[in-house]
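A note from the maintainers: we've had questions about how concatenated examples are separated. There is no special marker in the raw files; a new sequence line simply starts the next protein. For clarity in this README we add a label.
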Amino acid sequence: MHLKIGDIICVTGGNGFLGQSLVCALRNAGHRFIATPSSAKYDLTRVEDARTLMARIQPDVVFHLAAVVGGIGANQERPGEFFYKNAMMGLNTMHAAWCCDVKRFVTVGTVCSYPKHTPVPFSEADFWNGYPEETNAPYGLAKKMLLAMQQAYSRQYGFDAIHVVLANLFGPGDNFDPRSSHVIPAMIAKFIDAVECKRDEVILWGDGSPTREFLYVDDAATALIAAAGRYCNYELPLNVGTGIEVSMKQLADEIAALTGFYGTITWDATRPNGQPRRCLNVQRAREFMDIDAFTPRSTGLEHTINWYRTHRLTR
């Protein structure tokens, strides 16, 4: 076991969407020494801040979740920022962790790192076999470099690090800002707005044909803890997801029904689709966790919709 009760744990990005779920899951599992440094105090794109953070906390385990993220639109508008900040935060934090003799380093990767034309479902062995899909390649490549770094540090220094690739996340507390949100919160916000404003049409990006795989945020947190405790292969990433693929058209129909929208859904094919298909091969993850126990998409969508309706008026 690489994760023990009594360990000092640092969760970068611990105040974010996934981070809050992970911290809650760690506490529920009995962990009490958890640090969640804020970006206001520690700018991890600065090597000095990363070193200061690790030196002050002296963690046994680090979960590196801090990231600049967004949907296709945000990736296209800010590719330089997405590449630089994600690469620098990861490289600086990992190096500082190694310098401070951290026992276990867990990096959260992204399905965007996989090559555009990876055979579906995506297998870990194909991770390096091509260039990512262009609309979010800078982000995917920045995260991919963290796997390259952990491989190098593990080979040369014996550094204990793993790289976990999560399917697209969703759930309560997600980012619903239309300028930067991912597909599920963007759809939920559009459909609820249309219902409340009595509009009979919702316009969505693309042609509805791309497929994606979605993972409920609390399930992702549980999976990260399991991987931190049991996964030992620093050479290959570990895919974590449900293994269930859904088209954007089907997803839109599901969310429309759950939000009570019965108007017309129009697909704007002048907007990018992104990668044609995304679905992870999760056979290796089944060794560490009960994949079949993950929250059904319909249940997760209901929770997310209810959360948004309750909280958006107070945000």
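[label: protein 2]
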Amino acid sequence: MGRIRILLADDHAVLRTGLRMLIGSQRDLEVVGEASDGDEAVRKAAALRPDVALIDISMPGSGGIKAIERIRQAAPATRVLVLTMHDLPAYLRAALTAGASGYVVKRAADSDLLAAIRDVHRGRTVLDPALAARVVQGGLRRRGTAGPGPTTPLSQREQEVLELVAQGYTNQQIADHLGLSVKTVETYRARLVEKLGLQSRAELVRYALDSGLFGGEVGPTP
């Protein structure tokens, strides 16, 4: 049986070097390419057709979530495994929705990461246990309520509000920009917190950037 061919995508060169050494020490694994941003990851995946793409979410360019979607389109046979510092349920749900087959947090042991690569290649779905438990618990809390479920996608208006929140607009400015009342904007923000499980503006900003809502660029400051 041939080696499992792996593409590394992370904007930190030192981390990529460490991963290459770790993976290279395994007889059944090999690194066939590297990328430092989301756009390059898509190009490399389309050209190399790796078995597994090991992707970080927080990367320059179109963002890691968008990169996952585009890799799945450009190289359908490539399985995507997310390796990230983000241990928030919203990122896990977004990655899975985009087409990822696994989600591992960077604090995981080397042996866990190697096992995840092999499992994803075999067609299994691999999730960080602690984070997956939080997602399940969140779903159980919501079950039976009238509120949206944890996997409910954002509406177009919710995405617009999220983008403006991330750009630093106040509720009043968002209301003026979108032609809504301040109360309605507050309702949309509450829905974002409920759907994404993100509490602070900093978390919303990071999520908006990593999801590619800005297309790699932050809009003008009001």
